[in-house]
Design goal:
single chain, 279 residues, alpha+beta, Immunoglobulin-like, six-stranded mixed β-sheet, 3 helices, 22 strands, 16% helix, 35% strand, elongated, disordered N terminus
Amino acid sequence: MGTKAQAEKKLLRLFVLEILLCSLALGSGTVHTSEPEVRIPENNAVKLSCTYSGFSSPRTPSYENRVTFSPSGITFKSVTREDTGTYTCMVSEDGGNSYGEVKVKLIVLVPPSKPTVSIPSSATIGNRAVLTCSEPDGSPPSTYTWYRDGIEMPANPKTSRAFSNSSYNLNPTTGELVFDPVSASDTGEYSCQAENGYGTAVKSNAVRMEAVELNVGAIVAAVLVTLILLGILIFGIWFAYSRGYLDRAKKGTSSKKVIYSQPSARSEGEFKQTSSFLV
């Protein structure tokens, strides 16, 4: 894509948070839209309304090969989910002395795919457990509903007799389900459902989570084994010392003695010994 096309695309498509719901007039001209928000299924054609008045010689940019322009707006031949966003229609005179703009939000509708879940197979009672659910395809983004043993989980567990003994927080936007703490009644098969108002809601596979007690017996057993091994090591060191094995090992390392004697005075004709060593 060339520099000119990139600049034109940047002018046309601006992702912003706010949506202009009324016409905007700058200078003597006005630009307005009859539909500030448009929802259309993916792969369909759509027209974004953009009309103007008060411009003597308006000009509009071209937008790739998928869009055609007319005095009443722009038409996409086929939209994709990547086209979702807020578009700005700008109209200006050749001299650039007067211009107007209006924004139109386009939402390309895509049904949700089957969500994936992350659920621990076991969770310790009294601890924190986090379950997650997500699906990447839905447009607009999906919201999530959790189920335990096929029963929908309410946002507030205290409002339902089936979940009154549970303590959890459920976020329908992120799909996160947090138990804090886990209770014995939280054992069950969990699944989540994704929906975005378009197409059919889709449910994930069910995964069983067991709420288990802290295994005190295993912890005690591990401590006992550690103490026994430590006791055996200490006894082995004591036994070796009491039998004298450590002392004999030290005595077995013999030291060598070196005797040095100064040379004695002799006559010049005698053999001169400079030094002697006895090992």
